[in-house]
Amino acid sequence: MEGLTLSDAEQKYYSDLFSYCDIESTKKVVVNGRVLELFRAAQLPNDVVLQIMELCGATRLGYFGRSQFYIALKLVAVAQSGFPLRVESINTVKDLPLPRFVASKNEQESRHAASYSSDSENQGSYSGVIPPPPGRGQVKKGSVTHDTVQPRTSADAQEPASPVVSPQQSPPTSPHTWRKHSRHPSGGNSERPLAGSGPFWSPFGEAQSGSAGGDAVWSGHSPPPPQENWVSFADTPPTSTLLTMHPASVQDQTTVRTVASATTAIEIRRQSSSYDDPWKITDEQRQYYVNQFKTIQPDLNGFIPGSAAKEFFTKSKLPILELSHIWELSDFDKDGALTLDEFCAAFHLVVARKNGYDLPEKLPESLMPKLIDLEDSADVGDQPGEVGYSGSPAEAPPSKSPSMPSLNQTWPELNQSSEQWETFSERSSSSQTLTQFDSNIAPADPDTAIVHPVPIRMTPSKIHMQEMELKRTGSDHTNPTSPLLVKPSDLSEENKINSSVKFASGNTVADGYSSSDSFTSDPEQIGSNVTRQRSHSGTSPDTAAPPPPPPRPQPSHSRSSSLDMNRTFAVTTGQQQTGVVAHPPAVPPRPQPSQAPGPTVHRPVDADGLMTHTSTSPQQIPEQPNFADFSQFEVFAASNVNEEQDDEAEKHPEVLPVEKASDPASSLRVAKTDSKTEEKTAATAPANVSKGTTPLAPPPKPVRRRLKSEDELRPEVDEHTQKTGVLAAVLASQPSIPRSVGKDKKAIQASIRRNKETNTVLARLNSELQQQLKDVLEERISLEVQLEQLRPFSHL
Amino acid sequence: MAVCVAVIAKENYPLYIRSTPTENELKFHYMVHTSLDVVDEKISAMGKALVDQRELYLGLLYPTEDYKVYGYVTNSKVKFVMVVDSSNTALRDNEIRSMFRKLHNSYTDVMCNPFYNPGDRIQSRFVSLGRAFDNMVTSMMIQVC
Where does the signal peptide begin and end (chain B) (predicted)? Predict the structure, then answer.
């Protein structure tokens, strides 16, 4: 825009005129209607006016900015002065009189006022021309009072509220123009901004035909004429100049907009003076929308899918955000598709937005899909909405044009709110019914379920039971060998404990976690008691417990005995071999009860000839370091030495009756040495290898002992010595073989006893280990429980 | 009263996350992020092919000292995570479910908008998609406050 220099008077005059025309108080966009009025009042020919418009750039911009307006006014002055309109004439022409605007404009405005309402007095009120704006303003204010009678008082009150402070032209005029705006449908409002956008002007070419008659109608219809004139005015520029300005790429859109604006122009013309919702879709608009709908969806009752609608509305060049907002507003049932009504609403919103209107927060009630509820309540809602708004003007939503669009928006909002409640409630209820279905299916809250780890109490208990049984079985056989510390009291205690253990085990079977807990606690005590008692004597539980499986200890016993005995028997002659062989299996049960009573008690062995000479055997037994026997194998080894000592101290070889019976021969020695080596190996073997191996040790030891005892020499030195000593003892014992028959029996019995002792010791060890295992298992289970509790419901 | 509401996409990136600005929002972001693991755990534990039978509402994901985190998964593996204040003891499970239901409805509304590309952030700053969603979330965050 060329630099415009204005004199002070011109500046003031122009500013007044601008504010007069600036109905929307935007200080930027001047209502073209007013401008047209002004220009008409300038009594300039239309073409001149058009030229002026073109020169000032309003046609290009589509609206009158302040600069454009000033330039236009200047050009008016230039034209009125008779100077040719030139762009340069703005500044070149000097001493231009102020543009004159004829009072005929007032007459026209008075006519407009008359057409608006029955404010005939307005006619008289219009005195003077624009030049005396204040006076006019006063006149306008008077008209305002009349206008306020209109139901749109809220807007009036709203409008004058601010301008009352400064009696300018704009305030009084704004209601007036606002009334005009109110009269005009949204199409009318959109008409102006429509023209504002260049590409939209091409449609006006089509509107020309329609608007041609508008000039004539201008006198009769206030709102349309100025706009129509404006439209007509706009026609020529577009046809002449703007047509070339249209980018080819926008032609599709322009065609769309063409029809749209054409329809809007048409409906503007046909608009009556009745108040209309600016958001209301006129018939022409609707028809146009329907036609557009048909292009996408032939079936008027069908839907337009979201994708198609997206493409369609993307052509409007609106930003995606706004389009999405329009969609949110228009898609009433939120189904992702547009019905005819929804489509029309969306289209209308797009048109409005294109024309510069801000999108409402909520769908205008007039745009809502034509539901039965809405139609009935629409008419009703208007009244209360308006009335309600008179009292709450501050509720106007933010919009660019505060006067009408805001009001219109607020009204629909109020109306919508009540209606939307109806509809939305239906929606929400339906949604609730739909989603409630899911909730019904919902399973119980898994949070409440506490997962308890399956107590593995049974296994430890079982193991423990087995251990107990094993211990009992093992100790049963060792009872005869270690009767020293066996006390009936212990036995009774063991009985009780065992019974309690059994009872607890039964409880665990019946109960669950808690019982297992109790069971675990009990066996611990029991086990400790057992171990303690085991420490004292390993035989007490054995005897107190129910009869253990005889075969178990027997094989071990027999094994040990068989190994040693067999070896010994194999070596020796067979007289007592058979007997010895036959007897050892029978020996164990026998000596048990016999040995149980006490250490010094003789072992009355009836059927077992081996027991005949057990007189010394019991002596051997008490001499045996039972404590040492029950300790680790190392101690066993030491005890072996001690046993050797004892053996040496003893004079009754038990194990080797055969050996004794056998002729002293190198073979016997070999056998003995072998046995002793076996003893040694067995002694040196690890303590907890197995029951089978460990019992081997005691038998060899008794064998050794017996051999040594056979010596009757008791070379203590030999005791301390190892194999050599034993060999020497064996050798020494050779001559004593003949009297070892009974001694053999005793030896066998002693060996049996020792085997049993070792068994008990081992059994105790086993029980202790089992107890430790059980404890560890319990700890593990407790840890697992804690882990399950801490883990956040992973099972769900 | 939801202190924080988050919508997580299928690929475990946030589509929408909003928390009451009174506290350090980063903490809520972190809680939501850690809750995703629990969500995945629950999803995988539910069943391999029994997606239909899987309950959308996951329930309490994990409780902390001050807050409780609830989860909800749609059939398209879009997760809703809500952090509520533990001091509010009046919040029952049904209320949480209803809140998630509303969230889901609002989310579907956003999805219905053809101008919304799945995977975009649900923006509510502009007059655009997410406005209703954001309003609903606001109402949810204020309702029981």
Answer: none
